[in-house]
Amino acid sequence: MDMTIKPEAQPEAVDSDPASRPGVPMYKHQSHDVASAPPIEQQPETVPVFIGVEVGRLTPVFGTAVPPRGLSGLIRRRAYGIPEHSARRWMLLMLGDRVDIWESRMRRHPFLTVALIAGAVAFSRSRRHPATARAKRLTRRARSLLRRAIA
After folding, report:
1. Residue ranges per domain, the chain?
2. How many angstroms separate the CA atoms of 96 and 90, rounded?
3. Torsion of the alpha carbons at 143, 104, 95 and 123, rounded to the nearest 10
4. Three-state secondary structure string covering the chain
5. Which residues contact 18 (CB under 8 A, 6 or more apart)?
6. Looking at beta carbons, which pairs linking 120-123 to residues 24 or more positions away fall under 8 Å?
7. pLDDT at residue 121 above 90?
8. Closest CA to 22 of 11, 6, 9, 10
9. Number of neighbouring beta carbons within 10 Å of residue 19
10. Would you say residue 5 has pLDDT above 60?
């Protein structure tokens, strides 16, 4: 079997005359001059914004939808002081997100928050002093508060 390519079946070379190439009229030389782009104006800082250690400065545009607040804000502030390549930074940022969820739930349902705290305190006291009647009363009270909050 003959595997040679016949000269008339060979494809045209890419570096052949551009006038004979069918796609040449569609090509337009585009300059990729970065200096021609207008500079981005700096967004005003109306809320506290965290700056990562790699960036070292405030970027021109940043998000302000959820400003840092409470314990979750303190956790995120600590995370932004750690380099981006560290897993500890990302774990702290995820922890900050989870804490923010619980903070918002506590703001929406303060009665349930009080009931959960009372239940946790009663549970911890009953584990330390299982025989005390006071711990048992607190546990019963926390359960009734939880039932009312859920209902």
Report:
1. 65-107, 109-151
2. 10
3. -10
4. CCCCCCHHHCCCCCCCCHHHCCCHHHCCCCCCCHHHCCCCCCCCCCCCCCCCCCCCCCCCCCCCCCCCCHHHHHHHHHHCCCCCCCHHHHHHHHHHHHHHHHHHHHHHCHHHHHHHHHHHHHHHHHHHCCCCHHHHHHHHHHHHHHHHHHC
5. 24
6. none
7. no
8. 11
9. 7
10. no
> Look-up: residue for tokens 């002093």?
129
Highest mean pLDDT among 2-16, 44-58, 121-135: 44-58
- How buried is residue 57: exposed, middle or buried, by Cβ count under 10 Å (0-12/13-18/19+)? exposed
Q: How many CB atoms lie within 10 A of CB 135?
A: 19
pLDDT tens digits along 71-102: 999 999 999 999 999 999 999 999 999 999 98
Quickly tell me which residue has 């979750």 as its tokens.
72
pLDDT tens sequence across 18-65: 666 666 666 566 666 656 677 788 888 888 888 888 888 888 888 878
Do 123 and 115 form a contact (C-beta atoms < 8 A)? Answer: no
